[in-house]
Design brief:
By secondary structure, the protein is of the alpha/beta class. The protein has one domain: Nucleoside phosphorylase domain (Rossmann fold, 3-Layer(aba) Sandwich). It has helices spanning 4-15, 91-104, 163-176, 196-204, 215-224, 248-280, and strands at 25-29, 41-47, 65-71, 74-80, 108-117, 127-135, 180-187, 209-211, 227-237. Strand 3 (65-71) and strand 4 form a beta hairpin. The longest helix has 33 residues, at 248-280. The termini are far apart.
Length: 289
Amino acid sequence: MQQLAQKIAAACDFLTPHWDCAPRVGIILGTGLGSFADEITVHKCFPAADIPHFPKATADGHRGNLICGEIQGVPVITMEGRFHAYEGYSPAEITLPVRVMKALGVELLIISNASGGMNPSYESGDILVIEDHINLSALNPLIGVNDETLGPRFPDMSRAYCPKLVSSALAIARQENFAAHRGVYVGLTGPNYETRAEYRFLRRIGADAVGMSTVHEAIVAAHCGMRVLALSVITNICLPDLLTPTSHELVMQAAHQSEPKMRKIVLGVLAHEAAANASNQKPQAAMPA
């Protein structure tokens, strides 16, 4: 982590001359929310590969752009796609965009992904609002000498996912009349899907869904002191005794069909953020003389 601050500064120095607005919300558009960029009033769009020290996205469905703009009056900075360990990137490379978002002013990070559902009550197309995770990737972005200017040596993870945002997301789903669950996500490196024995093991240790992203981003967000909301679309059902073959094409298709649900939750949360921001900016009444 010793050279991390310099990399963050270089990326910020590249971005800020082109966009001088301080974003309040950062969004990582993974599988299941790829077209959400249509909701953004775009001020500037940067190919990630042009930004100093940013990796290049290689995964299908991940465009690899950094979009700066606003939604409902809220300044946002959005990763249109993400980076994964299975692409050959280190945890520090995967999470550099989160660090840069924080340096630019982001307070709230919204993460989306697709996952396999292991909870028997889940169905394909349901939304999981992640309330906790299990990191089984054998990787951690905080390994190495800690830079205290970026965060503490031993960050607390007991509330890595903001409970208020979890409750808000579930309430929005109820209002919109679609299924959303509160549950635990387990992160593996991939890129292969899991075996029947692995699904049994993961379910027994308390996981409701499994995927190949998100946990490293959430760890760094906690290290930075950011609030986190993570949403996962359940694309395939992973019950070991009823398991059918899974392909990336089927996962992408299921994620695309459920994208409107993810969109409604994110827009609802951003509407709450806009209202809170407007309330905070109201002029205070003058004190009587």
